[in-house]
Amino acid sequence: MSVKWYEKSGDLGDIVVSTRIRLARNLEQYPFPSRLNAEQRKVINSLFEDAMKKGNSTIANDFDFISLEELNPFEARSMAERHLISPEFAARPEGHGVILNKDNSIALMLCEEDHLRLQVLSPGLALNEAYELAEKIESLLSETLNFAFSQRYGYLTECPTNLGTGLRASVMLHLPALEQVGGIQSLSKTLSKVGFTLRGTYGENSGALGALYQLSNQLSLGIDEYTALDNLKGITHQVIEQEKAAREKLDEMAIWDKVFRSYGILKNARILSSKEFFEHISNIRLGISMGIISDISIETVNVLSNDMQAATLISRYDEAKDSANRDILRAKLVRESLK
Amino acid sequence: MSVKWYEKSGDLGDIVVSTRIRLARNLEQYPFPSRLNAEQRKVINSLFEDAMKKGNSTIANDFDFISLEELNPFEARSMAERHLISPEFAARPEGHGVILNKDNSIALMLCEEDHLRLQVLSPGLALNEAYELAEKIESLLSETLNFAFSQRYGYLTECPTNLGTGLRASVMLHLPALEQVGGIQSLSKTLSKVGFTLRGTYGENSGALGALYQLSNQLSLGIDEYTALDNLKGITHQVIEQEKAAREKLDEMAIWDKVFRSYGILKNARILSSKEFFEHISNIRLGISMGIISDISIETVNVLSNDMQAATLISRYDEAKDSANRDILRAKLVRESLK
User: Which pTM value belongs to this model?
Assistant: First the structure.
């Protein structure tokens, strides 16, 4: 396996876990995905696959086409756990294809809500870099494909909320101190008034697992891409400052205690549920960020956070199908990783 | 400081933490302690001190007379925490003296419920050895003192439950598995029917802290000393077998998980209450006993169990007077000890 994007750390990587850019595009000559038949989906999958392969060979060789119909359900769910595809996309494999590069930083979901959902993931805060990479792939595709575009609205999308740039930019933030002082809800309200969404990373309505929150732009119409990215970047820095201020107010010894208890548990537990894993790894991330822990890297935290989820474990280890065995395996893998 | 008795481990030391022998004796020519005046108490303290010093010099040099009136309250409570004196004795220092040997294995409480409460503590299961040592001290005292003795009843004591041999023998047992499977209460009932008491080590009515239970004989009248000791020894072996059987029934992985979590927490926590310390050190003791943990010794567990209690910490460290600081200090001392 090649090194994955999340095995590296990026700018402000102790708080900004990752940056995600998503571009929505649709082919001119086809109806939106909800009205496509099976045959048309197959054609569209092929069109995108061919378009990628016709590009320069360096890019072409870096990508694989994956038909979700050929994956087992755990492999598909594992991709959703690792944010490569949406959970809804993973749940209905028929006619669904993904074009994925080797380090998993670029994923093209085909026939999801739009014909193309092009996603670029990057460690740390890297909005412009990730957007430029997305743009590059989009340009490559544009050489052979025509995307539906209106002079008045911009890129056309199935859902009007994506109309215009088709761009959704987001950052995954680790906000344990804001969460602890109960500041997330009011922050989320404030942000929504100025066009941004803050929500728990895992699950639309679930509480935030591991104090991980997704901050994303909501506006795609009447705003150009770089302005949208700049706005999100500015807001991200503000949220980081708030998180840092909240950390300053926490009782220092209580934080050290919490961090080191999690350190001791992850290094020693023999049974570890996913929920508990996220709770402790969140404390480890905080500990690294605050200089309390020095012998674990953010990269290790990122790798574990990606790899220790249920479907990913099941897709890699047969024994993980049984949930009791899975918790034992998770504890073992975490111990070995932190040794 | 010389090596203390509890820094060694004895027979069956993984389950039998310690053995305690207590002999009650009263001087013929004085009323029982509840009816002594201050002057008489002083005289009695001196009589015992002189009697010890008149013995052979090896013994005499090994003992110190401690007046509780000269200790600060924390030092007195610390002695009670370490089972050298009773909590009631520690709480009322007036006219109370203790003659203590260097390794703290022999303590003579003066003017407690009886004129003399002679106690011998020993690691592991060592009933006969501890009794013989108590007997030796008692003989030494008898050379110059006359103990109240009736041909019909035996040694006379203030409370009739101690009449006869004046002997109370007990073992401190670590029974985490029996506790976990809920077997303590019925065991305790059964034992009381055959003349033995099983109760939590810390506090008469409190739950057992750290799964430590005191098993003691109740009969002192109409039974000779060695029969009483043999009976207690037999019952102790039966309880050990029950504890071992209960351990066999526990889920192995759950035990490993519990033991290693405690290991991780004690090695890493920055704040540690006394209650939590006892909970985790109990799991460590179980882990050593079951061969799960090999890099911590029973001796270390014994030392920590003696030294990490509140009054003992306060009597040794000024900073421990504040309870928040004490929990931080306890965590630090435990980490250093387990390093």
Answer: 0.90
